[in-house]
Structures are given as structure tokens and as C-alpha cells.
Amino acid sequence: MTDSKSVIPLESNPEIFSQLAAKLGLSPVLQFHDVYSLTDPDLLAFLPQPVYAIILLFPLTGGYEDYRKQQDANSQGYPNPEDVHWYKQTIGNGCGLYALLHALTNLPRDFITAHSSVSHLIDATRGKSVAETARHVEDLESQIKLDENYGVQGQTEAPAPESSVELHFITFIKGDDGHLYELDGRRAGPVDLGEATVENNHLLSDPKVAQKVQFYMDNTDDANKNNFAIMALAPSLD
């Protein structure tokens, strides 16, 4: 499956992600927040709890690409679609949208507005094939017009849609089966990280999440050590 189109990549900016999430149907009781540490208790204390999803921006290096391909080749299968919602990325540079949808569609349904875009996506793709769900995401992007409404926002100059951007968003969530999942549209399916060891969906308290993020940080090259950003979906401060 090849990219059907390309868009301007989203900036790792909680305000932009929160605005787009609200547009898609997220309840105002939740919003995105910057995460400055996964281990420092003083920095973590500033984050409202619980954290329902984590979005990681990280560099795509040659080492990571080799790791990704090897892991997918060795995969023994993926979870039942009822346990976790996952979407194959078919929009070039659209990983920010896929990361956001992976966060929103795996929330408890009470956090999603009825008859919203996300609510419709969940219902329309339940039990459907990878190709069918991918087309639904493409249709959703054409409705929200990422480039026009969100791609040019942010604090840095937006690259052209067709640019090769060596940064990528992925999402960590807790599935309905109680397992933690790494959701990446460029992978062959959801990555099961094992049973969650925390209650109330507070992902930052589960060591598996911190360990996986640290794994990516430890295995990048020196030139990309600072090209990481983390956002958490948690209760709003307003």
C-alpha cells in the first residue's frame, strides 16, 4: 500500500493537537500537554492525571528502519480489532494525524462526542480490513484539510507536503484487553507491549512505556539525540 497523497507534517505542539482533537470530537475535559521527562518526579508532578495516551515524535534513522523491518518480519500476528483501533498510514507525512487518531479512537467512548468525526470513524471501521480503514482515514483528512487548517500552524516554518521529513509520530495507549500498545501506521499492525501494570489508564506510571521510549532514545545516532518530543493526553487545565 503506497501513500495516496502527502500533507504538510504537523508540528509537535499540544495546542495544535488539542485544537484538531476538539475538531474531531474529543471532549473538552481532555487536552494535550508537553512531557519533559518520563522519570523525573518533579517534572511529572506538573502533568494532570491520569494520562490516557502518549504521542512520541522521534527521528527516523537507518538503525530504526532496520529494527522496524526486522520486528515486523518476525511478528507472530496482531490483536483482535475489537481490542485496539489501528490505522495503516497511507498519507505521506501524515503520521501526526494517525498518531492523534490512534489516541482518540482508543479512549473510553465517554470522552468522544456522539456523531463526531472520531465517533463515525470508530463505527465505520469496526471489523473492516486494513485497506478499508485506510480509505476512511483518507476521506477524513480530505474533510478536515490538514494543510489548510493545521499544517501551517506552529512555531517553525512548515515544509512542503512532498518534503521527505525524517521525524515520525507514534502513540502509546492501553487497549480494551488491558495491554499496552505501541501504535504506528508505518508498522504491520499494533505492537503489543504486554499487560499494563497500572490502573486508571495512567500510562506514565507504567515502566514499559518509559522503557520503550528510552529504547528509541538510546538507539538513535548522536546527531538526533535531541530530536525527540513527547505529548500526553490528560485532563484539561482549563
TrEMBL record:
<keyword id="KW-0645">Protease</keyword>
<feature type="site" description="Transition state stabilizer">
    <location>
        <position position="89"/>
    </location>
</feature>
<feature type="active site" description="Nucleophile">
    <location>
        <position position="95"/>
    </location>
</feature>
<dbReference type="GO" id="GO:0006511">
    <property type="term" value="P:ubiquitin-dependent protein catabolic process"/>
</dbReference>
<dbReference type="InterPro" id="IPR038765">
    <property type="entry name" value="Papain-like_cys_pep_sf"/>
</dbReference>
<dbReference type="Pfam" id="PF01088">
    <property type="entry name" value="Peptidase_C12"/>
</dbReference>
<comment type="similarity">
    <text>Belongs to the peptidase C12 family.</text>
</comment>
<dbReference type="GO" id="GO:0016579">
    <property type="term" value="P:protein deubiquitination"/>
</dbReference>
<keyword id="KW-0833">Ubl conjugation pathway</keyword>
<keyword id="KW-0788">Thiol protease</keyword>
<dbReference type="InterPro" id="IPR036959">
    <property type="entry name" value="Peptidase_C12_UCH_sf"/>
</dbReference>
<feature type="site" description="Important for enzyme activity">
    <location>
        <position position="184"/>
    </location>
</feature>
<feature type="domain" description="UCH catalytic">
    <location>
        <begin position="6"/>
        <end position="235"/>
    </location>
</feature>
<dbReference type="InterPro" id="IPR001578">
    <property type="entry name" value="Peptidase_C12_UCH"/>
</dbReference>
<keyword id="KW-0378">Hydrolase</keyword>
<feature type="active site" description="Proton donor">
    <location>
        <position position="168"/>
    </location>
</feature>
<dbReference type="GO" id="GO:0005737">
    <property type="term" value="C:cytoplasm"/>
</dbReference>
<dbReference type="GO" id="GO:0004843">
    <property type="term" value="F:cysteine-type deubiquitinase activity"/>
</dbReference>
<protein>
    <recommendedName>
        <fullName>Ubiquitin carboxyl-terminal hydrolase</fullName>
        <ecNumber>3.4.19.12</ecNumber>
    </recommendedName>
</protein>
